[in-house]
Design goal:
The structure holds 2 protein chains of 2 kinds. By secondary structure, chain A is an alpha+beta fold. Chain A has 2 helices and 13 strands; from the N terminus they run H-E-E-E-E-E-E-H-E-E-E-E-E-E-E. Chain B has 3 helices and 10 strands; from the N terminus they run ααβββββββββαβ. Classes of the chains: A alpha+beta, B alpha+beta.
């Protein structure tokens, strides 16, 4: 017993060094990979409660409405029915950028819908590009089809826009809207319904 | 035998056993290609085959001696072949997120693989073009050019990534063509098969 205690005492600095160096070595070898992974993947959601606003990339976000349509109104005004298994989910959002950097970041924002099974749909797929649009379809700018002028979000002013998703009709009830800005990864915005 | 000789003998046995164990491990440990190989998911015509990221169901196989296909600009063009055109009809569904079917090939009985032809003609019905969405089934075709004598026993391979699918599922769907079926199909193979006319509704 005395021999073990003596050994511990004589080796204490080495043991202490090991306790410090082992985790540091592990972190040094793993941190680069972790940082690279985190800069490409959505890991930390910022959850926005129903009716509340959320703060993300120096901008204030709010979910205004989410609706599902079983037909599509085309640009000419005529209605095109969708196949019975499909719906278009329209997500109306408001974003108020507070800084010039936020405005720039919004140019690369991406909207997605996810469901409880982890399935994901991207906003504005080409299959529904011919639909009639009354609101901007992008987080930052759009070409207004009525005036044929490009409109842009402005610092300090709310920008209302609408993202459309083509989803299976049986999934429309539990889909959750999400917003991702690549510069802010691994954080992303998730709106509770 | 003295104690020291017994100990030396035990050491020698231990060394030989360790060397044998190392050799066995060396022979049996899978290489990089095996460790990262695709996970084959097998199925047959008419059956929905589920991979990790997508599902595929093949419904029908048509053979043609020549194809008429739309091109991006200009009138439709006719494509002849010294082999046979194999047109596989099916439906693909993404399981998780938007995805492209980047790889489709036809593996013959002797192990040769013929990659799907999708760069010569323009057709939005080709399953290797356009995105597929989660839970939304999309019908379309895959087109292959194959020597007719290699068609019996052919298996369709499909994967989300490129030719060398790694650490991901690869669907392997038997087309159900034996020698007699190929002979019968070859006798009735169409000339001027219209790709845009044979499209799914």
């Amino acid at each position: 017993m005395t021999r073990l205690t003596d050994w511990r005492r004589s080796q204490r600095w080495y043991l202490l060094g090991l306790l410090v160096l082992a985790p540091v070595t592990f972190w040094l070898s793993a941190s680069e990979d972790w940082t690279a992974y985190a800069s490409r993947n959505r890991i930390n959601p910022i959850v926005v409660a129903k009716g509340a606003t959320g703060d993300y990339v120096d901008a204030t976000w709010r979910l205004l409405a989410i609706n599902a349509d079983e037909s599509m109104t085309l640009r000419g005004g005529q209605s095109a029915p969708l196949p019975q298994t499909l719906s278009i989910v329209r997500v109306r959002l408001e974003v108020t950028p507070r800084t010039a950097n936020a405005l720039e970041a919004l140019g690369r924002c991406r909207g997605t819908l996810t469901d409880a099974r982890g399935r994901r749909w991207d906003a504005n797929p080409s299959e529904i590009a011919r639909r009639a649009k009354s609101l901007p379809t992008d987080c930052q700018e759009w070409l207004n089809p009525k005036t044929l002028k490009t409109e842009q979000a402005q610092e300090g002013r709310p920008w209302v826009f609408e993202l459309a998703y083509l989803v299976p009709r049986n999934a429309t009830g539990d889909v959750i809207p999400e917003i991702t800005v690549p510069q802010a990864l691994p954080r992303y915005l998730r709106f509770e319904r | 035998m003295t104690r020291i000789w017994r100990r030396r003998l035990a050491d020698a046995v231990l060394i030989v056993l360790s060397a044998a164990a190392l050799l066995a491990m060396h022979r049996t440990t899978p290489g990089f290609d095996e460790k990262t190989a695709a996970f084959p998911v097998k199925g047959s015509l008419g059956e929905t085959v589920n991979g990790r990221s997508f599902s595929l169901r093949l419904d029908r196989v048509d053979l043609a001696t020549s194809l008429t296909a739309p091109v991006l600009l200009g009138p439709p063009k006719t494509y002849t072949t010294s082999g046979v055109w194999v047109i596989v009809h099916g439906a693909i569904t993404s399981n998780v997120q938007p995805m492209l079917l980047r790889y489709a090939g036809l593996r013959t009985r002797d192990g040769l693989i013929y990659t799907a032809v999708d760069d010569r003609f323009h057709s939005r019905w080709l399953l290797t073009q356009d995105e597929n969405y989660a839970g939304i089934s999309r019908r379309g075709i895959l087109v292959f050019e194959v020597p007719p004598d290699r068609l019996a026993g052919a298996v369709l391979l499909a994967g989300e990534r490129s030719f060398r699918v790694r650490l991901d599922s690869r669907l392997e769907i038997a087309l159900g063509l034996d020698e007699s079926a190929v002979r019968a199909r070859m006798a009735s193979a169409q000339a001027g098969y219209r790709l845009d006319g044979a499209l799914p509704q």
